[in-house]
Amino acid sequence: MTDDPKPPRIERRISSPEHRAAFAEAQASPLAHKPRLITSRSVQPSVHGSGAIGRFNTWLAVVVTKSVGTMWAAYVFTVISLIGAVALVTNNPFLILLIALISQTFLQLVLLPIIIVGQNVISASQDARAEQDHLTLTTLHAINVQQLKMLEQQREMLNKQREILDLMEKTELSKQA
């Protein structure tokens, strides 16, 4: 086993300057860290702004994204496809045109971008939560390291006390003998 010093740590994470500053503060004074709850609502202004239109756009995108990701939406899409199959079999030009309009125009050109925006909002809130969790876990780790050092110091003190007590016992025994 060698006593080579550890190589310098290379920072490979991509994080904001704010997160790096909070991380350094959490490491420097872990007892001062206060965990924060991050919700989608607290992150939404950073995606579309905090104005009425931005809040509405964010709300609509998240509602549509969550709605499309349900079995009820799958049932609706299944019914649309079944109606399209019936239209093809019966050679009904009105139904064929209607299903083509719904599936090719609305679902692909309208619904898909809304879902992507909703995913961006959800992703931003997950990223913010991950950063806060990282700060909290780093703080807990720093506190744990401090506690382990204190326990090691206590063990050393107890060992020294044991040595002193052993010496006192030996001198007591030698006096009695």
Describe this structure in words.
With 177 residues, the protein is mainly α. The protein has 5 helices and no strands. The radius of gyration is 32 Å and the shape is elongated. The protein has helices spanning 17-28, 40-48, 52-68, 71-90, 93-176. The chain has one domain. 80% of the residues lie in helices and 0% in strands.
Task: Give the gist of this structure.
By secondary structure, the chain is mostly helical. It is built from 5 helices and no strands.
The overall average pLDDT, rounded, is 83
Please indicate the count of domains. Answer: 1
Order of helices and strands: HHHHH
- Major sheet size, sense and barrel closure: none
Q: What kind of assembly state do the chains in view correspond to?
A: single chain
Total strand count, please? 0
Shape, per Cα inertia axes: elongated
* Rg over alpha carbons: 32 Å
Enumerate the spans where pLDDT stays under 50 for 5 or more consecutive residues. none
Derived from helix and strand composition plus strand pairing, the structural class reads mainly alpha
Strand content: under 5%
CA(first)-CA(last) distance = 48 Å
Residue share in helices? over 70%
Number of helices: 5
Features:
mainly alpha
SSE topology sketch:
Elements: H1 17-28, H2 40-48, H3 52-68, H4 71-90, H5 93-176
Helix pairs in contact: 1-5, 2-3, 2-5, 3-5, 4-5
